[in-house]
Write a structure and sequence with these properties.
Distance between the termini: 43 Å
Protein name: Wall-associated receptor kinase C-terminal domain-containing protein
Largest sheet: 7 strands, mixed
Structural class: alpha+beta
GO cellular component, one term: membrane
Organism: Setaria italica (Foxtail millet)
Subcellular location: Membrane
Membrane topology: Single-pass membrane protein
Strand content: 25-35%
Mean pLDDT: 82
């Protein structure tokens, strides 16, 4: 019997550690440890991380899909890592750059390898006002039937692999749907960049196709989030913080006194 009691006690301790938000209190009340969700931390190059973002090991302390890994302040979108350059909490925007692009030297031409995919389950979205898309066309093999685009100079990067030497980059909006030449290229990659980093003058294309596109990529692109989405509006209006489980389902409103409420902290006595 004594062994059974000890085993049950150990099991209860394990459950309490695994589910810190489900600690029982009075009838129909739930509690959490306020110290488990840091108020604010600095990561990377001085990026301040706090709610609705959260450290990757504290999955219930913020919005779904907004976990940031420490060190270089890394945000993961789908299967790719992005370095967080800036978070503007007042305007609900975060600027990130492809980690692979940033690892290229200052004089290199970064070779983008994938599109940007924002998972549906995250609360982040690509900004429709701050970004423009760059389209990269790699490994192009032109013929008389599909000649190269006359106004677009080739990417002038000796560091590109041989198969990529005949490659182009241009603002996506400058490629018309009826243009035949993109069909002569082996690979097309489209990535967002900050709109104000692109060149609007006549020198736009020559500068973009030398080192200009690399500079634009390293400045990153912008994502936004909407704090009024879902059940968070009432919770945050009452000075609480929304909590979600690892499946992205709303768990409750975390209040400053350690209690978890269904909707808002204003209901506290």
């Amino acid at each position: 019997m004594a062994l059974l009691v000890v085993a049950l006690a150990r099991l209860l301790l394990l459950l309490a550690a695994a589910f810190p938000l489900a600690a029982p209190g009075a009838a129909d009340e739930k509690y959490y440890d306020p110290g488990a969700c840091p108020k604010s931390l600095r990561c990377g190059d001085g990026v301040e991380v706090h709610y609705p973002f959260f450290l990757a090991n504290n999955s219930y302390c913020g919005y779904p899909g907004m976990a940031i890994a420490g060190g270089r302040a890394t945000l993961r979108l789908k299967d790719d890592n992005y370095t967080v350059l800036n978070i503007d909490y007042e305007n609900h925007t975060v600027t990130v750059a492809d980690k692979e692009v940033l690892s290229a030297g200052a004089g290199d031409c970064p070779r983008v390898t994938h599109n940007v995919t924002v998972p549906a389950e995250t609360w982040l979205n690509l900004s429709t006002t701050a970004n423009d898309d760059l389209a990269f066309f790699f490994g192009c093999n032109f013929t008389e039937a599909t000649p190269p685009p006359p106004p677009i100079p080739r990417i002038n990067c000796s560091s590109f692999p041989g198969r990529d030497r005949e490659s182009y980059v241009v603002a996506k909006n400058d490629v018309l749907p009826q243009d035949p030449w993109p069909g002569a290229c082996k690979e097309v990659v489209v990535v967002p960049v900050l709109k104000d980093r692109l060149f609007s003058s006549d020198e736009y294309l020559p500068r973009l196709n030398s080192d200009g596109y690399g500079k634009a990529l390293k400045q990153g692109f912008q994502l936004t989030w909407d704090p009024s989405r879902g059940p968070c509006f009432l919770c945050e209006k009452s000075k609480g913080q929304c909590s979600y489980n690892q499946s992205g389902q709303f768990f409750g409103c975390l209040c400053s006194d350690g209690r978890v409420r269904d909707e808002e902290c204003a209901l506290l006595a």
